[in-house]
Design brief:
Layout: E1 8-11, E2 18-21, H1 31-41, E3 43-46, H2 53-60, E4 81-86, E5 113-120, E6 128-132, H3 133-138, H4 142-148, E7 152-156, H5 158-161, H6 166-170, E8 186-190, E9 192-194, E10 201-203, E11 210-213, H7 218-232, E12 238-241, E13 248-252, E14 256-260, E15 269-276, E16 282-283
Parallel strand pairs: 2-3
Antiparallel strand pairs: 1-2, 3-13, 4-15, 5-13, 5-15, 6-12, 6-14, 7-8, 7-11, 9-10, 9-16
């Protein structure tokens, strides 16, 4: 058994997030500690990494199996990696990830985690906001928690990846996305998910993919979904990641939502993302 390396975990906010100091993504001796820290803090930032695409994937495999990505075309030689790019001359209404969301929550088995590595950065801007969905659940009233624990919520990719999804069709000049009828499919997840590794309860809704409560219409569902999402996005429930060259971020995709800030027009940004496969979510028994 490999000897554990000494790393330091430095919290980034009171709600979630931590910086991992002294870690090398190429060193398997750090991987178990990094996984444990991810389960504790929801979001991790590891600075000053120097990873090839193959090394990036190898690190991610310490967290789980990379997921075949739907809809978004991947690197030709590395089908597990999405290149998230905004060119310097692009002026889109929304960048990739530019709304509060959970990666691919419309899958029957939502991803366990995502791993984003900075390849090219603008001189300013491009930060990523994260919200704790465990914190969002815990700060709801006792009555609201009890009601939500018995509900399911339908998730769908149709607003982004369906035939009439504006995101894929109108706003992704530098991203190669194939939208289609399969993007309209729905899957029901528990509104309150129980995380298998630690038993934490997490509010599993987001602005773009959670479209209605199971057994209800979208119109009936909209007020409560809007309240839950806005509740999660309160400032005291957030952390903000600022990127530097060589930064590697991880997040638990089941216990967080995130938002890519588009404030760097005129500059190029390229990030490489690997998405880690998960298992079907279960609710409170």
């Amino acid at each position: 058994m490999a000897q554990k390396s000494a790393i330091e975990i430095k919290p980034l906010s009171g709600a979630l997030g931590a910086e991992v100091l002294g870690a090398d993504g190429k060193d398997p001796a750090t991987h178990e500690q990094i996984h444990d820290a991810l389960m504790d803090h929801g979001v991790l930032m590891i600075r000053d990494q120097d990873l090839t695409p193959a090394q990036h994937k190898a690190f991610c495999r310490s967290l789980g199996e990379p997921l075949p990505v739907p809809f978004v075309h991947t690197l030709e030689d590395h089908p597990e990696i999405i290149a998230v790019i905004k060119e310097a001359d692009e002026r889109t209404e929304m960048v990739f990830g530019g709304t509060w969301h959970t990666d691919f929550s419309f899958l029957a088995a939502p991803p366990k985690a995502s791993c984003l590595y900075a390849r090219e950065l603008p001189p300013f801007g491009g930060d990523t906001l994260f919200a704790s969905m465990t914190g969002a659940y815990e700060t709801l009233s006792r009555g609201m928690r009890a009601m939500l624990e018995g509900l399911g919520v339908a998730h769908s990719g149709r607003r982004s990846y369906g035939p009439v999804g504006t995101f894929a069709n109108d706003q992704l000049d530098s991203m190669n996305v194939t939208a289609g009828e399969s993007g309209d499919a729905e899957v029901v997840h528990p509104v309150v998910a129980v995380i298998p590794e630690n038993g934490k309860r997490s509010l599993f809704v987001n602005d773009i993919y959670a479209i209605r409560f199971d057994g209800m219409t979208e119109a009936e569902s909209e007020p409560l979904l809007k309240f839950l999402c806005e509740h999660a996005q309160r400032p005291e429930n957030l952390c903000r990641l600022t990127w530097r060259p060589g930064s590697l971020a991880l997040w638990d995709n089941r216990t967080t939502t995130h938002y890519a800030i588009d404030d760097y027009d005129g500059h190029r940004r390229e990030m490489h993302r690997v998405t880690i496969a998960g298992v079907p979510l279960t609710g409170v028994q």
